[in-house]
Amino acid sequence: QKVRFDIALASAERGQLKISSRLLAVARRVITS
Questions:
Q1: Strand, helix or coil at 16?
Q2: Domain with 29 in it
Q3: I need a surface site. Which of 3, 7, 9, 17 has the fewest CB within 10 A?
Q4: Is 8 exposed, middle or buried (0-12, 13-18, 19+ CB in 10 A)?
């Protein structure tokens, strides 16, 4: 069983969240805008 998720970088930065490069590497999709 795999976990699939998208990461919205702009939203994360607005929320002052730091997302590790390892987490970004396993994300299904990284949204940059």
A1: coil
A2: 1-33
A3: 3
A4: middle
